[in-house]
């Protein structure tokens, strides 16, 4: 079924092309012939356009998968060119786990503006398809000069920036395919495109709101973006809609019941979102509905009969929700979905009357100010008393729930829990990503004073510094080689701004300095990094004289944080970042003992886009191997956390692994004897057993048999749920 789904996605645009492409019946005038030669030059002579001469009869070239030119009435009406330059999501990745952008894009001298300036001179063009050609740069607004265009396909390139709003004026468009690029920001209002039947914006960075669209659409594909909203109820009016794919976003709230019975709906993919709640039992399904994929959401309850019944004509994918009854296979427990839904639930916006009397507003404001003054004094008194008490308390005496990345399920009031979580998340916020000037970097580091130098390597130095607001930061200096192409660097710097996560040492900004006259170095990038002062996980396990031993729940919370950081690196940005040098000393702990991964593989090339300055991987390893190597390294961290033993060689890892395997196979007492004695009495045996099991899977010698990061995270979350239930039942001092 997966292959059928993919085939449908690619067949639909082909059908659109076939329906609107006439047969060549003309000879081109010299002006349009010159335009085609200009396109050949601007595209840097791709393989599909080679062999052209002054005697080439363009209107009668035999069509091929890589080139099709159709003419009518002495004009080009269709131009279809396909290349072999890999797109952002399909590029082969080197050992660092990232594709080499400079090898896949057109050269530094390429100008996307010049290309579309030339293309818009083909005034009668109805079909334009330029796919996998390595185009890069922002899509020019002048594209709307192609007034007759009915089909536009520029997928699988490296086009970035916002989608120009001028596309909304291309009233003849029937198919718009911008998939598999680097577009970001909001989608412009496309409601005016009333003839549009196909819209494919998948595999970009668009969001957060659902776009405004015409209800004439037959196919809507918005998968793998950054959309975060409820599914809009206006889609009930999309009577022609056959295919709807919003998978791999962050859509919230319930699934509208009308979706399954839309008059024309056939394919419905809502997988890998944060959709929650129960499906109404009385919904009906369109008889033509062939595929429903709601897997990897937060749905609960039972399936309605039209989805639960087994039908040879309909495939229903529903794994990794919290469905009950006969659909409970491959499901999370109910508490998982309940907890996660609370965490992602959007704030409720109050509706205030716009006609409220001005005098009443002023009165309310005055009352609020007066009350706020009284409350402010009370809060100040309470705060000072609390601070005095906090200085006397050991940090490990604080409630454990306040330090855990994975929330427990206390029996207290739900609203109070949500308020606490919201306040905590606010404190974890980072300042907006920004581009620093060199003067600011010099100011931060006190002109790179040697007393602030805390590390030095082959690529540059690491300095401690202070922003003007007093925040402590780290400044990493990376020297880039002269061969680096500027557009490659721009695209890599764009990726840097997305490396911000609560379980990463996040990048706060950068400064790029170019030295035109330097013989060896073209430029230097200064990265401003978050500073984590509380030491590493290795420090906590190595020297118990200085730090209190971490109990089992604390260790679980830390490892879940590490797994979430790895998951973000692998899947949270495109392309994913692998080869991340995961080890104990690179897991830092903040004041609340939340894990932050440092020294991960920052996607910044140093030699013409072919190498990362922080990459430690063999250049011949593929991205899959590099990803599985991350899983192995995560397994080593788990192994050391469980046993309390720090390893320095593969043989030590194998020895500890063997001890856990024997303990797991023989008896509970044998497994306990292989664990760190400092956390004895603080864990549920089933929690330990689950963690040991996934650890051993991570350490499998065959990389292909190692689990995905999602599987690791799920098992760790299940383990801590078991631990929470055990702790809440009063078993903290005894073992099961």
Automatic annotation (TrEMBL):
Subcellular location as annotated: Membrane
Region (Disordered): 394-413
Keyword field contains Transmembrane: yes
UniProt KW Nucleotide-binding keyword: yes
Record field: compositional bias (Basic and acidic residues): 394-405
InterPro entries, per the entry: Kinase-like_dom_sf (IPR011009), Leu-rich_rpt (IPR001611), LRR_dom_sf (IPR032675), LRR_Rcpt-Like_S/T_Kinase (IPR051824), Prot_kinase_dom (IPR000719)
Alphabetical list of PANTHER family matching this protein: LEUCINE-RICH REPEAT-CONTAINING PROTEIN DDB_G0281931-RELATED (PTHR48006), PROTEIN KINASE DOMAIN-CONTAINING PROTEIN (PTHR48006:SF73)
Protein name: non-specific serine/threonine protein kinase
């Amino acid at each position: 079924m997966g292959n059928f789904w993919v085939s449908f996605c690619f067949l639909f645009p082909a059908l659109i092309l076939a329906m609107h492409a006439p047969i060549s019946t003309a000879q081109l005038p010299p002006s349009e012939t010159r335009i085609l030669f200009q396109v050949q030059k601007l595209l840097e002579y791709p393989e599909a356009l080679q062999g052209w001469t002054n005697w080439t009869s363009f209107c009668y070239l035999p069509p091929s998968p890589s080139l099709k030119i159709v003419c009518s009435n002495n004009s080009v009406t269709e131009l279809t060119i396909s290349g072999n330059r890999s797109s952002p999501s399909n590029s082969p990745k080197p050992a660092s786990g990232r594709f080499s952008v400079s090898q896949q894009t057109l050269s530094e001298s390429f100008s996307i503006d010049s290309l579309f300036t030339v293309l818009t001179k083909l005034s009668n063009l109805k079909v334009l398809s330029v796919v996998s050609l390595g185009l890069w740069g922002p899509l020019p607004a002048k594209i709307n000069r192609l007034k007759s265009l009915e089909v536009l396909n520029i997928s699988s390139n490296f086009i970035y920036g916002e989608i120009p709003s001028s596309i909304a004026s291309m009233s003849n468009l029937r198919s718009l395919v911008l998939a598999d690029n680097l577009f970001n920001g909001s989608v412009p209002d496309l409601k005016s495109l009333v003839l549009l039947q196909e819209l494919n914006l998948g595999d970009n960075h668009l969001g957060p709101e659902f776009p405004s669209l015409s209800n004439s659409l037959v196919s809507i594909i918005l998968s793998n973006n950054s959309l975060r909203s409820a599914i809009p109820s206006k889609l009930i009016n999309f009577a022609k809609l056959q295919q709807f794919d919003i998978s791999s976003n962050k859509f919230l709230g319930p699934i509208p019941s009308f979706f399954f019975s839309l008059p024309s709906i056939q394919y419905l993919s809502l997988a890998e979102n944060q959709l929650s709640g129960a499906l109404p039992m009385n919904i009906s399904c369109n008889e033509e509905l062939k595929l429903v994929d709601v897997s990897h959401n937060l749905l609960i309850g039972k399936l309605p009969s039209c989805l639960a019944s087994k039908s040879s004509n309909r495939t229903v994918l529903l794994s990794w929700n919290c469905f009950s009854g006969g659909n409970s296979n491959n499901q999370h427990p109910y508490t998982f979905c309940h907890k996660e839904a609370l965490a992602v639930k959007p704030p409720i916006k109050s509706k205030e009357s716009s006609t409220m009397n001005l005098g009443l507003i002023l009165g309310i404001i005055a009352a609020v100010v007066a009350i706020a003054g009284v409350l402010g004094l009370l809060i100040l008194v309470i705060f000072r008393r609390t601070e005095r008490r906090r200085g006397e308390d050991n940090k490990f005496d604080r409630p454990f729930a306040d330090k855990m990345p994975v929330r427990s399920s206390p029996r207290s009031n739900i609203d109070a829990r949500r308020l606490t979580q919201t306040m905590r998340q606010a404190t974890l916020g980072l300042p907006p990503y920004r581009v620093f000037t060199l003067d600011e970097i010099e100011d931060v580091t006190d002109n790179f004073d040697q007393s602030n130098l805390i590390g030095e390597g082959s690529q540059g130095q690491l300095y401690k510094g202070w922003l003007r607001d007093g925040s402590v930061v780290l400044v990493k200096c990376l020297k880039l080689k002269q061969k680096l192409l500027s557009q490659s660097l721009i695209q890599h710097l764009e990726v840097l701004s997305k490396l911000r996560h609560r379980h990463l040492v996040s990048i706060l900004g950068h400064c790029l300095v170019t030295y035109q006259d330097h013989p060896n170095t073209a430029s230097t990038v200064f990265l401003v990094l978050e500073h984590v002062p509380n030491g590493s996980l290795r420090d906590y396990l190595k020297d118990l004289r200085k730090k209190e031993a971490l109990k089992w729940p604390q260790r679980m919370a830390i490892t879940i944080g590490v797994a979430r950081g790895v998951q973000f690196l692998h899947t949270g940005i495109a392309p994913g970042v692998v080869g991340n040098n995961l080890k104990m000393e690179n897991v830092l702990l903040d004041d609340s003992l939340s894990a932050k991964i440092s020294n991960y593989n920052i996607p910044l090339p140093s030699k013409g886009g072919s190498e990362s300055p922080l990459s430690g991987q063999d250049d011949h390893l593929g991205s899959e191997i590099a990803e599985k190597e991350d899983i192995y390294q995560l397994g080593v961290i788990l192994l050391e956390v469980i046993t309390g033993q720090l390893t320095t060689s593969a043989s030590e890892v194998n020895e500890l692994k063997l001890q856990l395997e024997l303990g797991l196979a023989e008896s509970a007492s044998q497994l306990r004897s292989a664990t760190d004695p400092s956390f004895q009495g603080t864990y549920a045996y089933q929690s330990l057993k689950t963690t040991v099991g996934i650890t051993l899977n991570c350490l499998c010698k065959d990389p292909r048999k190692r689990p995905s990061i999602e599987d690791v995270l799920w098992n760790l979350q299940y383990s801590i749920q078991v631990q929470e239930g055990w702790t809440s039942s009063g078993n903290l001092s005894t073992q099961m």
